[in-house]
């Protein structure tokens, strides 16, 4: 009961958590020992819309045939059941290296469809089709960034394990928090984003991540690595988080390899390693310059699979100070109390070939594709 009280206090005021240790987390990798992954049905795409502290998001990544990259995102946030906010974000990265277009709009009158598979707000809608195979994403909240996009699955969606959830708490039969990621790893895209310079056609490839952080995000994870690779034949995706010391600095990985019509492998046996870094003089985080991503597993017919992407990231396309818009005194309090200093480094090395090396049984495959990656630092892991 005392641990629960301390956890509740930490959730409400953002204080640093006590050290519970690795016994207070049950990684989704435990489920994956018997069920490496589960293919998603339409019902699995429901929003949780929790009434307790959470951050839930659907993020759609677009790699246009023209070379541009974008993501569109709905974020649903609840602070201890007191206040709920919703935001629609869109970001476009240009191939000429010019400054990305960033649009972020608070949403009003947010609601979900009766079955919680669709999201609606004033001048915004993210709708799952009746057959569960496509999403339409529309927003007119920002006249400088009018979104009208559609993605359609060309490979099955999946969660790692039975339901994709990593659980947190000293009594894991009644967890006080959770983390879940559901993916559509390989999709086709169509539609456009209207900007002040005219429309941008996003016909090409796409990827969807539906994420639920069922607790204060900086209590769940201290660091993140993310990869979205889309190639002519294969897609490779990876999401990795490392918990703060309060949960034993535990590393949890989820990811997979897909191609048209099938998942090649999916599960927790993947990871990201920063091979080279450079110190960011503004915040002392070790910005990665070279990263190695790996996957391993077994196909449904029993063939062993190994995959690797190892590449230089090139110059980052953006560095985001997550708390940039928070008043200075609040930032200082949060940094001192919870040890948070969140920055996201984004990479889109469109001028550097990204090579996926894949071995399926005795077959060796090499292909060049396109990569978008993020490295996020939130708090110290020691």
In short, what is this structure?
With 382 residues, this protein is mainly β. It is 8% helix and 55% strand.
Give the topology.
Layout: H1 2-13, E1 25-26, H2 28-32, E2 37-39, E3 54-64, E4 69-79, E5 83-93, E6 101-106, E7 111-112, E8 119-121, E9 124-128, E10 134-139, E11 145-153, E12 158-160, E13 165-168, E14 177-195, E15 198-201, E16 204-213, H3 217-220, E17 223-230, E18 234-242, E19 251-259, E20 262-267, E21 270-279, E22 286-298, E23 304-312, E24 318-321, H4 328-338, E25 340-347, E26 354-360, E27 363-379
Antiparallel strand pairs: 1-13, 2-12, 3-4, 3-16, 4-5, 5-6, 7-8, 8-9, 9-10, 10-11, 11-14, 13-14, 14-15, 14-16, 17-18, 17-27, 18-19, 19-20, 21-22, 22-23, 23-26, 24-25, 25-27, 26-27
Structure characteristics:
382 residues; mainly beta; AttH-like fold; 4 helices; 27 strands; globular
Walk me through what this model shows.
The chain has 382 residues and is mostly beta strands. The protein has a single domain, classed as AttH-like domain (AttH-like fold, Beta Barrel). Helix content is 8%, strand content 55%. The protein is built from four helices and 27 strands. The two termini are 27 Å apart.
Give the proportion of residues in helices: under 10%
Structural class: mainly beta
Q: So, CATH architecture?
A: Beta Barrel
The CATH class, by name, is: Mainly Beta
Oligomer: single chain
- Please tally the β strands and state the result: 27
> Alpha-carbon distance between the termini?
27 Å
Instruction: Determine the CATH superfamily.
Output: AttH-like domain
Characterize the biggest β-sheet.
14 strands, antiparallel
| Overall outline | globular
- The gyration radius over C-alpha positions equals 20 Å
- Beta-strand portion reads over 45%
**Uncertain residue segments:** 1-14
Count of the separate structural domains: 1
User: What is the CATH fold-level name?
Assistant: AttH-like fold
Mean pLDDT: 90
Please work out how many helical segments DSSP would assign. 4
